[in-house]
Design goal:
Length: 319
């Protein structure tokens, strides 16, 4: 009885684990860092909203490009931004998946290591370099091909003429954006493909599957959320790109799906870069308001991507 009566008391007097000073400092620093991100984001959003009010309530004739209201001014810019990013991802996504699969599952080890280093280096190339490459080399190179497209498939609305004589079109800008998005998308997809469960891959091969069937059944389902994340990173790069688009594109205030003409819709980021130095008064507020629109578009796309990724979060290599 005495031993049984004393055992609970001994348990209650068990010493608590001491919290080290380093743990407290690390915990506090993480909380401060996370809070700082939210504060900066809220401050940026508040600044954009306050500075955008004069443009949103501007009278007719005070906005740039003789726009009747702000939405008629920013509409072509939103269209050009989304259209250029869509074309870029349409080209970059299959190429990125193919390059990443080649590096992770097809290429010999030495070749895959060299290609991995090259992809990582391409991701660090400044955008102005891509812009100069696009306007000096790519545009003159693809211009004869654009003439061929118009001559043979000009009946299709996307390739309707007249073709641009300089090659500085929305399609050229989209190609440059695709080249800029491929390195970061490929790097993310490569790491995701390498994390695919080895047991699943070996089981598929043992059952007689070919390498492509193994990839289709074991690797791609596992990497689906990672592929979506990589695409969203590339989309963010394409939506916010400034210098490359400003250098390559010959913009106009139009909404057109034609990708080979001389009149091409401009993007929000490129328009801000080109017009900000000379903007004054309501024109400056209009540029800031267009930045707010781009901010909202990027936020909505990131939220949609997070929703898609969370739906696939339950899948793991242990399933």
């Amino acid at each position: 009885m005495t031993a049984s009566a004393e055992s609970p008391a001994r348990t209650d007097r068990r010493p608590k684990a001491t919290v080290r000073l380093g743990d407290r400092v690390f915990s506090l620093s993480t909380v401060v860092a996370g809070t700082l991100i939210l504060v900066v984001l809220a401050a940026v959003a508040l600044f954009l909203i306050v500075q955008s009010i004069p443009a949103l309530t501007a009278k007719v004739g005070t906005l740039p490009d003789q726009a009747t209201n702000f939405w008629s001014y920013v509409g072509p810019l939103v269209f050009g931004t989304v259209w250029a990013a869509f074309l870029a991802l349409l080209m970059a996504t299959p190429l990125s998946i193919g390059i990443a699969l080649f590096i992770s599952h097809y290429a010999p080890r030495r070749i895959s290591q060299v290609l991995g280093y090259i992809i990582d280096l391409l991701a660090a190339v400044p955008s102005v370099v891509f812009g100069l490459w696009g306007v000096l080399i790519l545009a003159p190179f693809v211009q004869p091909f654009y003439n061929t497209l118009v001559n043979h498939v000009g009946w299709f609305p996307l390739f309707a003429g007249p073709v641009s004589g300089t090659g500085k079109t929305i399609l050229t800008a989209a190609i440059v954006l695709a080249v800029m998005c491929i390195p970061i998308m490929t790097a993310v997809m490569r790491e995701i493909f390498l994390q695919a469960p080895r047991l699943h891959e070996e089981a598929a091969l043992a059952l007689g599957a070919t390498r492509w069937e193994m990839i289709r059944m074991a690797v791609l389902p596992f990497a689906r959320s990672g592929i979506v994340s990589a695409i969203m990173l590339g989309l963010g790069r394409a939506l916010g790109e400034t210098l490359a688009i400003a250098i390559v594109l010959s913009p106009a205030t139009v909404i057109s799906f034609a990708v080979l003409g001389s009149q091409n819709p401009n993007t929000i980021a490129a328009n801000i870069a080109l017009q900000f130095a000379e903007a004054q008064g309501v024109g400056l507020n209009a540029l800031i308001a267009s930045g707010l629109v781009l901010f909202v578009i990027t936020l909505l796309i990131n939220m949609a991507a997070r929703f898609i990724v969370n739906r696939r979060k339950a899948f793991s290599g242990a399933n």
